[in-house]
Design a protein that fits this description.
globular; 4 strands; mainly alpha; 6 helices
C-alpha cells in the first residue's frame, strides 16, 4: 500500500511504502508527514520504533555519499589545471545530469514552465556553489588534507548556521545547540593539534 508522504517544502508528494510487521500486519503508517524545516517536525515523526525504520533518511544518505565522491574529485583535480576551467566542465555535466533527472521524474514536464516560477534563489545558489567549489579546490591545491579540510569547514558551517537559523528563521538557540558549539570548537582544537 502507498501513502502520499510529503517531503520538502514543495507540495509534491512521493509514495511511501508501508512496512509489514513480523506478524504480517501493517506496523507503520505515514500520512502527510513533513520533512521540511519550519513544520515543527522532529526525527521522532519519521521513526518507527517497532521496525527500527527511518523515514526521509535517503536525502542525508545521498548527501553523505555525494560529498565523499565530491571531496575525492576535488582533491584529484590536476594541480596544473585552472580551477575555474575545471568548474566549467563540472557545471556542464551537472546541468546535463539535472535535465536528465528532471525528465525521468517528470515524464511530461516542461523546463520552460519551471523556469517561469524561478526567483533569485537558483541564480544566487549558483554563485554560492562556485565559491564552495573554488574554496575546496584551492584548499586542496594548497595542501589541505582531505581528512581535515571538510571537517574544519563543516564545523565552522555548523556554528554559523546556528546563528543564521536564529537570525533569519527564528530557530531557538537551545542548551543542546550550545553544547554542540562547545563540542565543535573542542573538535577543531584537537584536529589542529
Amino acid at each position: 500500500e502507498l501513502t502520499g508522504a510529503r517531503c520538502a517544502s514543495r507540495e509534491e508528494t512521493f509514495p511511501t511504502r508501508l512496512h509489514t510487521g513480523a506478524r504480517g500486519r501493517l506496523s507503520a503508517e505515514l500520512t502527510g508527514a513533513r520533512c521540511a524545516a519550519g513544520e515543527n517536525s522532529s526525527l521522532h515523526d519519521f521513526y518507527n520504533p517497532e521496525e527500527k525504520t527511518m523515514f526521509c533518511i535517503w536525502p542525508i544518505a545521498l548527501v553523505v555519499i555525494s560529498n565523499i565522491a565530491y571531496q575525492i574529485c576535488a582533491k584529484s583535480v590536476p594541480k596544473d589545471m585552472n580551477p575555474m576551467a575545471s568548474m566549467t566542465v563540472t557545471y556542464l555535466v551537472g546541468a546535463v545530469c539535472s535535465a536528465v533527472m528532471y525528465f525521468l521524474i517528470n515524464k511530461n514536464g516542461s523546463l520552460l514552465q519551471e523556469y517561469s516560477k524561478m526567483n533569485l534563489a537558483p541564480a544566487l545558489l549558483g554563485v554560492s556553489v562556485v565559491g564552495l567549489e573554488a574554496g575546496f579546490i584551492y584548499a586542496y591545491k594548497l595542501g589541505w588534507p582531505v581528512s581535515t579540510a571538510s571537517i574544519v569547514q563543516s564545523a565552522f558551517l555548523a556554528l554559523a548556521l546556528i546563528f543564521v537559523g536564529a537570525l533569519f528563521y527564528r530557530e531557538p538557540i537551545t542548551v543542546h545547540k550550545i553544547i554542540g558549539i562547545v563540542i565543535c570548537l573542542t573538535g577543531l582544537y584537537f584536529i589542529n593539534k
